[in-house]
Write a structure and sequence with these properties.
By secondary structure, the chain is an alpha/beta fold. The protein is built from eleven helices and ten strands. A hairpin with a 5-residue loop joins strand 7 and strand 8.
Length: 265
């Protein structure tokens, strides 16, 4: 099976759109995947579980895939590293796929991904090499380019590579890309690019009534969103940290899950 670890923060309509996409897969395909949504400390009124419990489309939809929601209860800005680590810590499948809420996986893409080999034989050394896989990315304007951060891999090898370094949590940038993929390749692992296999980048208003449905939920979403402080996308701190770690002036850490969390579904 395949575990899709999806990060979430204060964007309920995008989450509901993702669930609708997965629910439209054929039943036999749904049953091959598990979805773990990690709510990275969304404030009340925007937490994932609130919309999963009450949104009409969710209550009317039949899901044939395993679906879990966990919520980080500590306030750590930009905790992408901890969120991805938590998803794969809780996973119980061989394969894992890192995903963000603004990236939809078309049925054809997930079908293809499930056929990819995650090891290959080195002809010279006769050793087995771990292989990760990266998707192409199609933006709303139709432009296409490699999705640098997200990929499919074996979860055991994710941890063997070092997982994500949570020293980067708390500030924006330099998380999955470049630091995790740097560690992945430093360990002799490789990744393959798939220019014909797409993730579809989508733009979804956090409170879009098309997905939330219930007027009271939409209004509650808008109210909570208006009170939420905006996170600053300042890369300077993590850029310096990345350069120090890459140069060997600071150690890579394996201190994982530095927060509390609760399983909500």
């Amino acid at each position: 099976g395949l575990t899709i670890g999806m990060t979430y923060y204060a964007s309920p309509a995008a989450l509901l759109r993702q669930l609708s996409n997965f629910a439209n897969y054929p039943v036999d395909l749904q049953r091959q995947i598990s979805l773990i949504v990690v709510d990275d400390g969304s404030p009340p009124g925007l937490q994932a579980i609130e919309y999963i419990k009450h949104a009409p489309k969710i209550n009317e939809t039949s899901f044939e895939f395993r679906f879990d929601i966990v919520r980080i209860t500590n306030e750590i800005d930009w905790n992408i590293e901890g969120s991805r680590n938590l998803a794969f810590y809780l996973a119980d499948t061989r394969l894992g796929l890192m995903l963000d809420t603004d990236m939809l996986i078309p049925e054809k893409s997930i079908q293809e991904a499930l056929t990819w080999n995650t090891t290959k034989l080195d002809n010279e050394t006769k050793s087995v090499i771990a292989v990760a896989h990266k998707f192409n990315r199609q933006k709303p304007n139709g432009k296409q380019f490699l999705q640098p951060a997200l990929g499919l891999l074996e979860i055991d090898e994710y941890w063997n590579a070092g997982g994500l370094d949570e020293d980067f949590a708390g500030s924006y940038g330099h998380g999955t890309e470049p630091h995790f993929w740097h560690l992945w390749q430093q360990g002799g692992r490789v990744f393959e690019k798939h220019p014909e296999t797409f993730l579809m980048e989508v733009e979804t208003d956090p409170c879009d009534p098309e997905w939330i449905g219930l007027a009271t939920l939409v209004e509650g979403c808008k109210s909570a969103l208006s009170k939420m402080p905006k996170l600053v996308k300042d890369r300077s701190r993590n850029r310096k940290l990345w350069k120090r770690k890459k140069a060997g002036k600071a150690k890579w850490t394996n201190s994982y899950l530095r927060f509390n969390w609760t399983v909500e579904l």
